[in-house]
Amino acid sequence: MPTELEELVGFIAHPNPQIRKLATENLVPYSTEQPAIFKTDELLPVKHLKFLIRDHPEIAEHALTILINLTADQSVLEFVATDDRFLGILLGNLVDPAEPNANLLAMLLANMAKWDDLKSIATRKQEVPAALQSNELVLNQLLDLFVKGADGTYNKQADFDYLAYVLADLSKHPEIRQFFISKQEYDGVVPINKIKVFTEHKSDIRRKGVASTIKNVAFDVPAHPAFLDEDQINIMPYLLLPITGSEQYDDEEMMGMLPDLQLLPPDKQRDPDHNIVQTHVETLTLLTTTREGRDLMRQINVYPIVRETHLRVDDEGVREACDRLVQVLMRDEAEPGAEGIAEDDGEDERIVEV
Question: How many domains does the chain have?
Fold first, then answer.
């Protein structure tokens, strides 16, 4: 005989909405405590949960929360992420300006982006709501949602912060890196320029996802001239400001720095998240792969900033990243092996749980 908990899982698909609501609400804690109860009958409960994201908003909220937690499991993740029809429904709901569960949809999409084949989203298109002022390419819609979510101008119930993690994981794929550095016809903007402004945003989720996205795109060495060009991407201020604190520099060091880094206020704080600081330093190291990048960093006095970061951030990962960058910057260009260092882009293992 089925247990009471197994019976409760069976009520997910009950025709009575009140029973569905009670079942999904009471099952939320078990999606982290006993996820196996949802993996019976060839994942039939998960199939039912996928239907419920279009149910009454309260039922959909519980269903989405359960799915977010369950997709920490690889088998469930594959089952959900490979369902193209479900992905289409999720994306369609996500761009609806009246969608009450948009943040949860973004969180679920962030987990689904762990599935490598989701890179097919690079060419996916869907109808675009007039209010979004985007184009049919889903990637552009996600970016525009992310930008508008920062000030709540699109959906008053969503900030779309978790799309930062979606963009970070997708940018591990070369075809999506190309998207980020290619000017879009509908608005004439290079996509990475839309997100670089969030490297100092108040949301640690945004900052973390954007830092990882920029780093991933920086693995495309042919794009480095655009990264460094002040009239194109001009990424250096957006990498250096987050790792700069309120420390004082002598006049010679200060005057050689970028204007954005000169005479910072006394309350200027370095990003408090050591992982974000490390990511930015690693991106700077990637940009030393070319002679142009190394020369620019010497010209704009990156070394003193990295030196102070090394001294003031009590984190081994940050210090090791600073050491690697300094070794490149201080090396004589005539020495063997003076070329920059390109590190492997490790997968971002964040799985969202609620």
Answer: 1
- Residue 143 belongs to what domain range? 74-217
Assess if residue 18 is contained within a domain. Answer: no
Q: Please answer whether residues 278 and 291 qualify as being in contact, where contact means their C-beta atoms are separated by less than 8 angstroms.
A: no
Residue 187, in any domain of the structure? yes
- pLDDT tens for each residue of 125-168: 999 999 999 999 999 999 999 999 999 999 999 999 999 999 99
48 assigned to some structural domain: no
pLDDT digits (tens, 9 = 90+) for 293-317: 999 999 999 999 999 999 999 999 9
* 107 belongs to a structural domain: yes
Residue 125: beta bridge partners?
137
